[in-house]
Amino acid sequence: MTNKIHFRHISEYQSPEQSPGYLLWRVSIRWRNVIEKTLRQYDLTHPQFVVLASLAWLTKDGKKVSQIDVGRVAGLDSNTTSQIFRGLEKKDMIERTQSVDERSKNPILTLLGSKTLAKAMPAVEKSDNAFFALLKVDEKNTLIQCFNKFITIEKLN
């Protein structure tokens, strides 16, 4: 015998399709599957790609950055960022040098990391464009604005 859940008592939504959180979950799973499939050919996981791309954006002008800086841009905690960097280092896509502050390291892209990102980035953007193609331009721009609101709020906290 199972106990019935009376959703009208525990949820403000009459169905999951009315919940923005549920919908975001479903869309993000579908989108992530598309991106992960795209990245397989480059021997990258999605988190590795995000960290590699974040590192490239942050160091494009030759500036030294810390792993913490990259993690912050990628939206990852320091332990996760460090694990991802270890994986990228094993693949010879990044090198890490000891920082002036001996508690941190400065990652840099290797030649292989740069070449891999130069191929993976356009492929990911192509997959992104294909995934979001069902949206009109103004809908896509609104979605980007909404996402940026959440990122701005995250930075404030």
Give the key terms.
single chain; 157 residues; mainly alpha; Arc Repressor Mutant, subunit A; two-stranded antiparallel sheet; 64% helix
CATH superfamily of the domain at 39-130: Winged helix-like DNA-binding domain superfamily/Winged helix DNA-binding domain
Total strand segments: 2
Largest sheet: 2 strands, antiparallel
- What gap, in angstroms, lies between the N and C termini? 45 Å
Structural class: mainly alpha
Mean pLDDT: 92
For this structure, what is the CATH class of the domain at 39-130? Answer: Mainly Alpha
How does this model look, in words?
The protein has 157 residues and is mainly α. The longest helix is centred in the first third of the chain and has 21 residues, at 20-40. It is globular and about 55 Å long. The protein is built from 7 helices and 2 strands, in the order H-H-H-H-H-E-E-H-H. It has helices spanning 7-10, 20-40, 46-59, 67-74, 78-90, 111-131, 137-156; strands spanning 94-98, 105-109. Helix 3 (46-59) crosses helix 4 (67-74). It has a domain at 39-130: Arc Repressor Mutant, subunit A (Orthogonal Bundle). 64% of the residues lie in helices and 6% in strands.
Chain-wise SSE layout:
Elements lengths: L6 H4 L9 H21 L5 H14 L7 H8 L3 H13 L3 E5 L6 E5 L1 H21 L5 H20 L1
Antiparallel strand pairs: 1-2
Helix pairs in contact: 2-6, 3-4, 3-5, 3-6, 4-5
Brief write-up:
This protein is mainly α and 157 residues long. The protein has a domain at 39-130: Winged helix-like DNA-binding domain superfamily/Winged helix DNA-binding domain (Arc Repressor Mutant, subunit A), CATH 1.10.10.10. The chain is 64% helix and 6% strand.
